[in-house]
Amino acid sequence: MLVRGYTRFAASCVVFLVSAFFHELMVSVPLKMPRMWAFLGMLGQQPYALLVHYYCPKGGKLGNMAMWLTLILGQPLALYMYFHDYYVLRFK
């Protein structure tokens, strides 16, 4: 995309959008439960990365902690949301 004249930011946004779509597809199809949790979680990473870059331009310990925070809390939170929806649909 960069070769075609798109900015780095635009290319990054498109890649995140495509990646978010396929992550959602990989979760929704096996569960037979189309939700937007994985898609929204992936899309939320882009503004979060911009915020972290704004507040921690050199990275460092704070930037590293912000990255690990999303890995430790973000992914399990998304799984819990799918589990909740699955449980409500199947067992109530």
TrEMBL record:
Query: What are this entry's molecular-function GO terms?
Result: diacylglycerol O-acyltransferase activity
Task: Kindly list the residue ranges recorded as spanning the membrane.
Answer: 6-25, 37-54, 66-83
Catalytic activity, EC: 2.3.1.20
List the membrane topology term(s).
Multi-pass membrane protein
Q: What is its main location?
A: endoplasmic reticulum
Q: Might you name a Gene Ontology BP term for this protein?
A: triglyceride biosynthetic process
- Could you tell me where this protein is found in the cell? Endoplasmic reticulum membrane
> GO CC annotations?
endoplasmic reticulum membrane
Q: What keywords is this UniProt entry annotated with? A: Acyltransferase, Endoplasmic reticulum, Membrane, Transferase, Transmembrane, Transmembrane helix
Give the enzyme class. transferase
Q: What pathway is this protein said to act in by its record?
A: Lipid metabolism
Know the name of this protein? diacylglycerol O-acyltransferase
Read off the lineage from the record.
Answer: Eukaryota, Metazoa, Spiralia, Lophotrochozoa, Platyhelminthes
